[in-house]
Design brief:
Blueprint: E1 18-22, H1 32-42, E2 46-53, H2 79-89, E3 93-99, E4 102-104, H3 105-110, E5 130-132, H4 138-154, E6 159-163, H5 183-193, H6 210-237, E7 242-244, E8 252-256, H7 268-279, E9 285-290, E10 292-294, E11 297-301, H8 304-316, E12 320-326, H9 337-349, H10 351-354, E13 358-359, E14 363-367, H11 375-395, E15 399-403, H12 407-412, E16 421-425, H13 432-443, E17 447-451, H14 458-474, E18 501-508, E19 518-520, E20 536-537, E21 542-547, E22 552-558, E23 574-585, E24 588-593, H15 597-604, H16 607-621, E25 629-632, E26 637-643, E27 649-655, E28 673-677, H17 679-682, E29 686-689, E30 695-696, E31 703-706, E32 712-718
Parallel strand pairs: 1-2, 1-12, 2-3, 3-6, 6-7, 8-9, 9-12, 14-15, 14-16, 16-17, 17-24
Antiparallel strand pairs: 4-5, 10-11, 13-26, 18-21, 19-20, 19-22, 22-23, 23-24, 25-28, 26-27, 27-32, 28-31, 29-30, 29-32
InterPro entries: Class_I_gatase-like (IPR029062), GH (IPR017853), GHL6 (IPR028212)
Pfam family, one: GHL6
Biased composition (Acidic residues): 461-478
């Protein structure tokens, strides 16, 4: 393959796979031809390698760049030129990794004005006498551009990745150092907040509340401005080169990794790739998969089955895969290389199928934004999100992840219009702008599904809090002998006009106040102690509402009865309080679940929660509204649906049966299953599989039989 590197072609807009060699100082003797051959065999078409910043792997002329001292043993002393020659000879794109977050001790001592300075006036130091620098200072604002100019004038690289560009409040040991207080930050902050009496003091950290929140907006703005300058700088000098840096660069970048002290979210890669692609479908996404267990344990390999999921979930959502190792291939035993290579070669072999891959799901699940919530509310909302994610995955409802902070941008670029259903998980108050956007979307014909806590008018909410405090002081008991401690919100109007409720009458947050309360299908024999299931326990929170005229309800509450001792466990009578309600709004409709059904599913694992969610979802957003496919698959299979540049519909079926506590282990084979096309999609449709390479026949009722598979299968449909 011959690549013309003089033409300003945006090569990254075609499918590609990448391999990263994150070089150590001792890797200056890398055999570039041997590594390039390995990368080509692995299935990658691009190579990311360490160039400069903390340590230069080329003979720099800049006195503030420290050259790798082991380069003196390398003929020519230029690892980057050697690497570039090896990559070019094999048609591999070469990208440069730069890290400007730290400098060596001699540079720090010569230029203390470049450094991060903690609120207690200390530097942030690291291994081998490295010292953190501040994005507000001249190192980031001036010297970085000198370094990049030197690199680009010597090496026509195909792209750049800049590592850890930001205000490093935490170090490698995850020790929190606070907000930078260097002179450059003080000046910029003063200009940002005002002068004289209007000027504000710099915050020290998150404990400064709204002042810290304001600083986060300020600091993010500095990085965004700097990123734009870097992007323009590269585009002016190397028009064919891409920038991977944050969410506004040429390539949106995500590192898939694990950690020993972090609960694994088995769908993290799929979730993140989906929220990137659904927001900006025209901007490529790269998922760089770390081959090691944790940043503090970089010589321990990730479990191969887990590592394969990083790559597989990435390509199933239309992202480009990347394998990331420490050092040079062959020096550390990376157990996941074989399975990763299988994924990379599969992606390269079927690049025509992956070209222009875009999501076509008509359902979106909103990912909560932590910066808009208090910690406790965010934790509950995130648990709800994960429970609903799992429910939709197991029910085989194709969906995208829509980040809460991308709602305005997605509305502006027209992306919201392809969704027929948007699910909002237990998010409480949202930005007023987001509420207006969602109301307009519902009025235009969409179906909004809200679960758990809803946002109410700020004034009414404040009055409700005061009422709750007064009730807390009263220590009153209810008729059943239980101490009641609900948060009263009488008369509180919801932010979202589209919801089927006029106002909130009560909102219970005390866990014990929900004991022995349930939701169940409507029935009339509970007074005789006979019940029809499923019976779903009320957990975490519960809202009561005055419903709008014409609003319909599904399932009702079984009211309190003793839960102990066993001799007296009876008497839960169904009352006229709804588990969910829905009503039309404009040309659309909105649904409200009065309790967090997703969180209940995630934290108990009881399928009755998923069943209830499915019953309501099927009624208000079922059938044709969820696309042309009905899937008969094991619940351990995740389904994604996309369409490519050729108009083919691409269905990925991913085997998740290997899920275990902190990773993926050995999987079980998935038996034969089926996909049925809707009546309007059947005529002229054809289907084939990519893993097994079979042409699939369609039965009279539109059913396509998919053979059993191991890790995954991809079904490509044409003519629908």
């Amino acid at each position: 393959m011959t690549v013309d590197h003089t033409m300003p072609v945006q090569w990254w807009r075609e499918p590609f796979g990448m391999f990263q060699t994150n070089l150590r100082e001792i890797d200056a003797d890398m055999d570039v031809d041997q590594v390039a051959d390995f990368i080509l065999q692995h299935g990658a078409t691009a190579w990311l390698t360490s160039v400069g910043g903390i340590l230069a792997n080329y003979p720099t002329d800049l006195d503030f760049q420290i050259i790798n001292p082991l380069l003196h043993d390398r003929p020519g002393r230029d690892l980057i030129q050697d690497t570039l020659d090896a990559a070019r000879a094999r048609g591999i794109r070469l990208l440069g990794r730069m890290d400007f977050s730290k400098v060596q001790r001699p540079v720090a001592e010569a230029h203390p004005e470049w450094l991060y300075l903690s609120p207690n006036n200390t530097w942030q130091t690291h291994t081998n006498d490295l010292v953190s620098v501040c994005p507000s200072g001249a190192w980031y604002q001036e010297r970085v551009f000198d370094i990049m100019d030197e690199v680009m004038s010597r090496y026509p690289l195909d792209g750049f990745f800049i590592n850890w560009a930001g205000y490093n409040e935490n170090d490698y040991y995850r020790i929190y150092h606070g907000v930078c207080h260097c002179d450059s930050c003080r000046r910029r902050w003063a200009d940002y907040t005002g002068t004289g009496d209007d000027a504000k003091d710099l915050p020290d950290g998150p404990w400064n509340g709204t002042l810290y929140d304001e600083w986060k907006v300020f600091s993010n703005g500095v990085i965004d401005e700097w990123t734009a300058r870097v992007r323009d700088f590269i585009a002016d000098r190397l028009p064919h080169a891409a920038l991977m840096l944050g969410e506004s660069a040429d390539i949106m970048f995500y590192e898939a990794n694990n950690a020993v002290d972090r609960e694994v979210w088995h769908h993290a890669t799929s979730e993140t790739a989906s929220r990137f692609v659904s927001f900006r479908p025209d901007v490529p996404v790269l998922v760089n998969s770390a081959s090691f267990l944790d940043h503090a344990y970089r010589l321990t390999s990730e479990e191969p089955e887990h590592y394969a999921q990083f790559h597989l979930q990435a390509i199933s959502r239309g992202a480009n895969p990347s394998t990331y190792i420490l050092g040079v291939p062959g020096r550390v035993p990376w157990d996941g290389m074989e399975m990763a290579g299988d994924m990379m070669r599969f992606h390269r072999r079927h690049r025509d199928v992956y070209a222009g891959l875009r999501p076509v799901a008509t359902t979106a699940l909103v990912l909560p934004e932590g910066r808009q919530m208090e910690d406790a509310q965010y934790d509950g909302s995130l648990s709800e999100f994960k429970g609903l994610y799992k429910a939709l995955q197991e029910l085989h409802v194709p969906f995208d992840v829509l980040s809460q902070r991308y709602i305005p941008g997605t509305a502006e670029n027209g992306g919201l219009q392809r969704y027929e259903t948007i699910v909002v998980p237990n998010m409480g108050r949202i930005a007023d702008r987001d509420a207006r956007i969602l109301d307009e979307w519902v009025a235009g014909g969409g179906t909004l599904v809200v679960t758990g806590a809803i946002g109410v008018e700020a004034e009414a909410e404040a009055e409700a809090e005061a009422g709750a405090e007064a009730e807390n002081d009263s220590d009153s008991d209810n008729d059943n002998g239980r101490e009641r401690n609900p948060r009263q919100n009488t008369g509180a109007k919801p932010q979202l006009d589209s919801l089927p409720v006029a106002h909130q009458t009560n909102f219970t947050t005390e866990f014990r106040d929900l004991w022995s309360l349930y939701m169940a299908p409507e029935q009339d024999e509970t007074g005789h102690h006979r019940y029809q299931g499923p019976i779903v326990p009320l957990l975490h929170t519960y809202g009561q509402y005055a419903w709008k005229d014409g609003a319909q309800g599904r399932w009702k509450k079984l009211d309190f009865a003793p839960f102990a001792p066993p001799e007296y466990i009876y008497g839960n009578v169904q009352v006229d309080e709804r588990g969910a309600g829905f009503a039309s709004f404009g040309d659309g409709n909105a649904v409200l679940f009065t309790f967090p059904v997703g969180r209940g599913y995630r934290e108990t694992g009881l399928s009755c929660f998923r069943t209830y969610f499915r019953v309501v979802l099927d009624e208000v957003a079922g059938g044709e509204r969820r696309g042309p496919f009905t899937f008969d698959l094991s619940s351990q299979v995740e389904v994604t649906v996309n369409r490519n540049r050729e108009g083919q519909t691409v269905v990925h079926l991913i085997n998740l049966s290997g899920i275990r506590h902190q990773n993926f282990g050995e999987r079980l084979p998935i038996p034969g299953s089926s996909i049925r096309l809707s009546e309007t999609a059947r005529e002229g449709a054809r289907a084939r599989t990519l893993v097994t390479g079979l042409e699939l026949e369609m039965e009279e009722d539109g059913t396509v039989r998919v053979p059993g598979f191991e890790l995954f299968e991809v079904v490509v449909f044409e003519g629908i």
